[in-house]
Amino acid sequence: MATDSLKVLTDKSEIFLKKFENGIGKFSANALNKHVALYSHLLQEANSIANEFSQYLDNWPSFQNTEEEPSKKELVTSKIGQWFSLYGKIASHELYFSSLGRNGNCEGKIKELLEINFDSVVRFKLDFKIKALYSTGWVWLVLDHYTGKLFNLSSNREDAFPFSGMSPLLAIDLVEHAYESDFGSDKEGYIEEFFNALDWKEIEKNLPIM
Ligand SMILES: [Fe+2]
């Protein structure tokens, strides 16, 4: 029986495709569908590594202390690193897709937290937007458990989310494939439309119970 040691991830494409069937604001259904397909591809890649790793565990006793063992070990180490990198991208895409879907109205608990941490929602958006404009990967709104504060973290293209000690609440994808077909080179227009299409009620659900 294969052991589920590297987590086998659930593909949520169907949920996202249904939500995006008529597009969201200026995000076309076609562009969103292509983006979901890309997410699904990353997920299949990660699950294929997870399955490979399970087989390694199942067969490990048979090549322990054999000539094969060092090369297998090396393979497993590089695959685990690759899996974690994919996992960061997959989790960020899920956060991004699940955040889209309403009218951008920010209210309730999450609004209060943004005001406490950034002075105002407008100021939060400005901080997020500037970081997003200069990022080639992702910007996440996170809750840092060490300080108890919210802040916006940005990354370069290949960086996965640094999950340690933080809860990601919201993510924007800044790789060209996320906006080129609907917005061309108008990255700022894309970021503004992202704010307009946010579902803050859904985002609030990402707050951990404290
Ligand atoms: Fe993406």
Determine the N-to-C terminus distance: 38 Å
Number of strand elements:
3
β-strand percent reads: 5-15%
**Cα gyration radius (Å):** 19 Å
| CATH architecture grouping of the largest domain | 3-Layer(bab) Sandwich
Give the domain tally.
Answer: 2
CATH class of the largest domain: Alpha Beta
Largest sheet at a glance?
A: 3 strands, antiparallel
Low-pLDDT residue spans: none
The set of bound ligands, ions and cofactors reads:
fe (ii) ion
The class by helix and strand makeup works out as mainly alpha
Alpha plus pi helix count: 8
The averaged pLDDT comes out at 91
State the strand order across the main sheet.
2-1-3
CATH fold title of the largest domain? minor pseudopilin epsh fold
CATH superfamily of the largest domain: Iron/manganese superoxide dismutase, C-terminal domain
Question: Could you explain how this protein is built, in words?
Answer:
The chain has 2 domains: 13-99; 108-204, minor pseudopilin epsh fold (3-Layer(bab) Sandwich). Strands 2-1-3 form a 3-stranded antiparallel beta sheet. The radius of gyration is 19 Å and the shape is globular. Helices cover 55% and strands 10% of the residues. The protein has 8 helices and 3 strands; from the N terminus they run αααααβββααα. It binds fe (ii) ion.
